[in-house]
Amino acid sequence: MAISKSQQFFESLWYRPAPWWLWLFLPLQLLLRLVVFTRRLFYKLGVFRSVKLSKPVVVIGNISVGGTGKTPLAIYLLQWLMEQGYKPGLVTRGYGGTAENYPLVMDDDTPPEISGDEPYLIYHRTKARLVVDPVRSRGGQTLIDLGCDIVICDDGLQHYALKRDMEVALIDQSRELGNGWLMPMGPLREPPTRLEQVQMTLVNGTDMTLEPQTIKGVGHTQPLTSKFVNGVAAIGNPQRFFDTLIQQGFEVLPHSFPDHHQYQGADFTDIEGPVVMTEKDAVKCHHFSEDRMYYLPVETRLTPEAEAALQRQILNLLQYN
């Protein structure tokens, strides 16, 4: 089902001047701040156990809810590292997957409903070693046992049970940090000061961009000829995808679904005309695809300065480990 109007309304409050009644949630925000502070302190003091792996760990994450471009950046890093002759692996929680046993080592036969949409997409785009495991330290160790010499942790900035050698935080340029408050008053999982502790912060829209590639059919090769399309997205920031389609010259009727939504054929019954979705959405639609369904793949492009800085730091990790 599509995102309800009430969901859209409350999320929109985080990215515009807030009404007075939003302050009623102040006690909950303060409680979350206390929980975040206490949790980090307990890991620092050793009250909670944090596992150090024998190979470098690079965490990609954000401090806000919603999409910031973590998956495309993970794909970029895996592809670049393999081009340099390394054997990277990626560990991820696999949100939305239904695996009964972990760690789950991805292979060509693992369906997206088992692994989750993002692991499926990353694996099939890169063919890198990929393990799905809510216990990321266990998943990371599995990657090392499989021969990986560096572990990329997708969306693990707040997963302190796994020690990391480098943290890369992503911010969406169009949304930034919203009103700067923690949930439920705002979109943040941790205070903005958390960004002072990461090794690198990338802004999706300035330091990096997601460049559209050629639109492809979902399970078919028919070309898209219409300039009117139904934009379909179940990602953290669907408007960014719709804006991309508009920039490509399409007239777009948007259809938003909850992030990681598990599509069914019935979701498209009332949608007339051609459909263009994200690649992450498309992997979940192959078993009921129609000739009117398409997806728009994207490639990560970093500015020369950001690319050089990111690559230099990762190569330094590999050199001294």
UniProtKB/TrEMBL annotation:
<dbReference type="InterPro" id="IPR003758">
    <property type="entry name" value="LpxK"/>
</dbReference>
<feature type="binding site">
    <location>
        <begin position="64"/>
        <end position="71"/>
    </location>
    <ligand>
        <name>ATP</name>
    </ligand>
</feature>
<keyword id="KW-0441">Lipid A biosynthesis</keyword>
<keyword id="KW-0472">Membrane</keyword>
<keyword id="KW-0444">Lipid biosynthesis</keyword>
<comment type="similarity">
    <text>Belongs to the LpxK family.</text>
</comment>
<dbReference type="InterPro" id="IPR027417">
    <property type="entry name" value="P-loop_NTPase"/>
</dbReference>
<comment type="pathway">
    <text>Glycolipid biosynthesis; lipid IV(A) biosynthesis; lipid IV(A) from (3R)-3-hydroxytetradecanoyl-[acyl-carrier-protein] and UDP-N-acetyl-alpha-D-glucosamine: step 6/6.</text>
</comment>
<keyword id="KW-0443">Lipid metabolism</keyword>
<keyword id="KW-0067">ATP-binding</keyword>
<keyword id="KW-1133">Transmembrane helix</keyword>
<keyword id="KW-0547">Nucleotide-binding</keyword>
<dbReference type="Pfam" id="PF02606">
    <property type="entry name" value="LpxK"/>
</dbReference>
<feature type="transmembrane region" description="Helical">
    <location>
        <begin position="20"/>
        <end position="42"/>
    </location>
</feature>
<keyword id="KW-0418">Kinase</keyword>
<keyword id="KW-0812">Transmembrane</keyword>
<protein>
    <recommendedName>
        <fullName>Tetraacyldisaccharide 4'-kinase</fullName>
        <ecNumber>2.7.1.130</ecNumber>
    </recommendedName>
</protein>
<keyword id="KW-0808">Transferase</keyword>
<comment type="function">
    <text>Transfers the gamma-phosphate of ATP to the 4'-position of a tetraacyldisaccharide 1-phosphate intermediate (termed DS-1-P) to form tetraacyldisaccharide 1,4'-bis-phosphate (lipid IVA).</text>
</comment>
